[in-house]
Design brief:
Elements lengths: L1 H15 L20 H6 L12 H5 L9 E7 L4 H11 L3 H21 L4 E4 L4 H7 L3 H13 L8 E3 L11 H7 L4 E3 L9 E9 L3 H10 L6 E10 L1
Parallel strand pairs: 1-6, 2-5, 5-6
Antiparallel strand pairs: 3-4
Helix pairs in contact: 4-5, 5-7
Length: 233
């Protein structure tokens, strides 16, 4: 009975406050949440988890040694994926990160567990940016992944001690220069011998992730892998 009443209440509220898909903007129907069925089916999935030498992994060849690397979607401007990332980062949609993380976790499950991954670490935000946004979108994604993968997620080890300018309009060299000496480690001894999965929202040049991975790889016996929600060619 309570379920029926709730359904009627939700249907009534949707008449005045319709929920829309975070990717395409169309109205959601019953049993859809944040993303419509059409977008879930049609988003540009990469299937990089099936390709050890995929384009994300190749970006880091000769830069940092990784166990595996990948991304869930291809990112192009003026597409649903750009809208989805924008909603996640700037429109107060932390629950969207959780949803996408859970979706991606189902895809990654076999790869992550066969490689013995021990811990998820999201790319950290500087405290000033965290205060401004209210949440770290990479942590939301990692938390969603953690729910499915049953691997813990932690923000206590990798710290962003230096605020940086936005990377969006910088060229490749400037992005790398911008990430110099940005991250520090705390309680590093607790990570010795661990396989760490770094989680981010979008991979472009990989400068931020390279800086994070390089810092983690200074710890004895640490192995690092990388995943993100989207990959920008």
């Amino acid at each position: 009975m309570l379920h029926v009443v709730k359904q009627y209440a939700d249907d009534f509220l949707s008449l005045f406050f319709p929920q829309v898909c975070c990717a395409c903007g169309k109205h959601l129907v019953a049993d859809e949440n944040l993303l419509c069925t059409a977008c879930i089916y049609n988003l540009p999935y990469t299937n990089f988890h099936l390709q050890p030498d995929n384009p994300v992994a190749r970006q880091f060849w000769g830069r940092v040694p990784l166990v595996y690397a990948g991304a869930f979607f291809y990112f192009h401007k003026h597409t649903n994926v750009q809208d989805l990332i924008h909603q996640l980062k700037y429109k107060n949609k932390p629950e969207l990160g959780h949803l996408i993380g859970r979706m991606y976790g189902k895809v990654l499950y076999e790869l992550v567990h066969s490689s013995g991954t021990d811990l998820l670490i999201p790319v950290p935000l500087h405290h000033s940016r965290l205060k401004e946004r209210g949440y770290n979108q990479s942590y939301c994604i990692a938390a969603g992944l953690s729910t499915v993968l049953e691997i813990p997620v932690s923000e206590q080890y990798l710290i962003r001690h230096k605020a940086t300018d936005t990377q969006t309009h910088k060229n490749r060299f400037s992005r790398f220069e911008n990430m110099t000496e940005v991250f520090t480690l705390e309680h590093a001894h607790e990570l010795e011998g661990k396989h760490i999965l770094l989680v981010d929202d979008v991979v472009t040049t990989g400068a931020t992730l390279e800086s994070c991975a390089s810092m983690l790889l200074t710890i004895s016996g640490v192995r690092v892998s990388i995943v993100s929600i989207a990959f920008a060619h």
